[in-house]
Write a structure and sequence with these properties.
Elements lengths: L9 E5 L4 H12 L3 E6 L2 H13 L3 E6 L5 H15 L4 E4 L16 H28 L2 E5 L14 H18 L6 E6 L7 H4 L21 H13 L4 E3 L2 H12 L1 H11 L2
Parallel strand pairs: 1-2, 1-4, 2-3, 4-5, 5-6, 6-7
Length: about 270
Amino acid sequence: MRKTTFRENVTIITGASFGIGRELASQLADQGAWLALAARNAEKLAEVSTQCNQRGGRAIAIPTDVANQSNCQSLVESTVKEYGRIDTLINNAGIGMAARFDELKDLTIFEKVIQVNFLGSVYCTFYALPYLKKTKGRLVGVCSQRGLFPSATADGYGPSKHAMVGFFDSLRIELAGSGVSVTMIFPEWVSTGITSRALKTDGTPTGEISLHERNVMTVETCARVIIRAAETRKREVVMTLLGKLGLWFKLIVPGVVDQFVRKKTE
């Protein structure tokens, strides 16, 4: 196997049982990475781990609920026990929400989304950071363009992603000179099935793929972009031209951005 950046690179991937996380695991296994795969679904996780081992990587499955701080600690400790170090942490786990804020009966679902999408990244980073400092490793946050722009609904997803951006941007400054890089990824819609798992007002998943998730970027393309960004230690990647233009419009004519977001979700 040819020499690559991620050959024998000890990489933790959260949310590895589906979508982007699963594809990241596959592509990194092709490069010979040593993977610690985390997700709640133990059965699916085991499948991904087996496939990664068959593709030339080395992988262990560690069932993990990133909303649980002790689970995140165990994830990191199990990884170090198996491989002796951590080189890369990809905070990819996430959950969607399909409920207006003014329709919620209480904040249970809102809090759950914040815990998974934001605090899950904080917990994993907290326990992995001492090891990443030793290896001058890589921190990657798979965010969303909803972390850069306002949303048409004030559900928990957008706020969780904005919080993620603020945390990792500040952590990047804090870690200056440590050798640890912080890379933020901002996809728009990717064909992952996340909308079918998004939580409704009653806490149950929608069970349906949204129209917004059809005919969009594939997980294969998205994963390739993420791996390349991590490899080159890029600061951030906004994956669409519309997203890049939107950042300028947000500065110059923010009201136009509000109108665009509202119409896009009607």
